[in-house]
Amino acid sequence: MNNVINNKQLIGAKGINSDLKLFKVGKVKEVYELESGNELEFRFTNNISVFDKVIPTSVPKKGETLCKTSTFWFKRANDMNILSHYISNPDANLMRVRKVDIIKDYSKINHSTTNYLIPLEFICRYYIAGSLYNRLQAGKVAPTSLGFDANTSLEYGTKLPEPLIEVTTKLEPVDRLLSLEEAMKIAGLTKEEYDNICDTIFKLDEKVNSEIETRGLIHVDGKKEFAFDPDRNLMLVDTFGTADEDRFWDRAKYEQGEFVELSKEYVRQHYKRIGYYDSLMYARDTSQPEPDIPPLDENTTKAVSELYVELFEKITGQKFVN
Fold it and tell me: Which of 60, 114, 222, 286 is the S-S candidate for 246 at Cβ 3.0 to 4.6 Å?
């Protein structure tokens, strides 16, 4: 396979004329390396991934809404003097970013390593939802560990007394929750650096929350990723604050006791309703071949596309222009 792709092929005459080298194909993004070797270009596709499966359905406008939403937040981060890898947008679904090393061998990471992706995902939770709710129901998480009394009956949607940051692996085949000690060890972090990451997350989310509340949304939880630059300064990377990385609810409906999912969770719930999720979990639990994920039907595809556009507009306060 020839991995060198002409940029005009990729984005048309509006693009830069240098050649791009295919760097990585992810579940929802294609990543290309610029000729300089110091920058990458993200191409946001219309793919959607749930349960570590790529759905065999292209959702119109999905990639562009994610690119534009994340760009919106990176510019906000820049205004807050928070360093990020964001550079520019050559086109509506393309993002130019600074390149860092990806080191999969944890033994090669220590307190003096520079310019590398921190191999962790940081999930900050403000309400009981998603996998946290599932673990509470299964008795794997105690109410006291979340700041509640031991005999508190916790329902889906309960607001946490304090934000909860959980850390998972980033570069392993299946993400797994980590203790603070293991997270610091495999990522080569000092306690001061870990605390700095948490403070940065809280600062970013304070901005996210303050903006979306005025537009009728609740920020339930969200994922963020970081790296160190060549001088080991903390740098915000990947994407954040989008329908894929974060969970949002309709505020007015929440106050009426209803949970209207305005995120990729809408798609997850679709596969739970049709029984696919249960079949997949059974196969994984019993070490059997996993069933292929079915495509979305036409009506659901249209609804998902409209959801991504609606959420872009509510998050940013901007009109989506295709």
Answer: 222
